[in-house]
Specification:
This protein has 148 residues and is mostly helical. The chain has one domain. The chain is 80% helix and 0% strand. The protein is elongated.
């Protein structure tokens, strides 16, 4: 398998994991509301989920934004320099670094404190691992920060 194919497959898997955060937790919230169950979520879990949602959203927005920019602007726009929308999108990876490090801290905290269910901690760890792999991916392709 070629490196580019491997990286595209990796990117697809990472994006699915980031999307799973939004889908799984949204469905869980709807189910709890329909069952009229209150969610006795500890503040640590609440903040950890918010950071995971934000990190996943930033990563998804960056990839989708780049794809839309490339598709709509065409290659000719890049011949004249980096379009302003792409420059704006390049501000997202440094934010992703901060959020990923925060995810890592919350993952350690969740396992040490046994916060949430085992399946919840496993999913959170998967999301954290995906965020770390995504940063590696961005760095490999020189997409981490303003490297143009």
């Amino acid at each position: 398998m070629r490196t580019a194919d491997l990286h595209l497959n990796l990117l697809a898997i990472l994006l699915l994991i980031f999307l799973s955060v939004w889908v799984a937790w949204s469905i869980g919230g709807v189910v709890r509301r329909l069952r009229k169950q209150s969610s006795p979520v500890q503040p640590v879990i609440l903040w950890a989920r918010r950071i995971a949602l934000l990190a996943s959203g930033v990563n998804l927005m960056y990839v989708m934004g780049l794809l839309v920019a490339i598709a709509t602007l065409g290659q000719g726009a890049f011949a004249r320099g980096i379009p302003p929308i792409v420059v704006a999108l390049y501000s997202l990876p440094p934010l992703a670094v901060v959020l990923t490090l925060t995810l890592l801290g919350f993952t350690v905290l969740a396992w040490k404190g046994r916060y949430g269910s085992l399946s919840g901690r496993l999913h959170y760890s998967l999301v954290t691992s995906a965020a770390l792999a995504f940063l590696w991916f961005l760095n490999y392709w020189d997409l981490l920060g303003f490297q143009f």
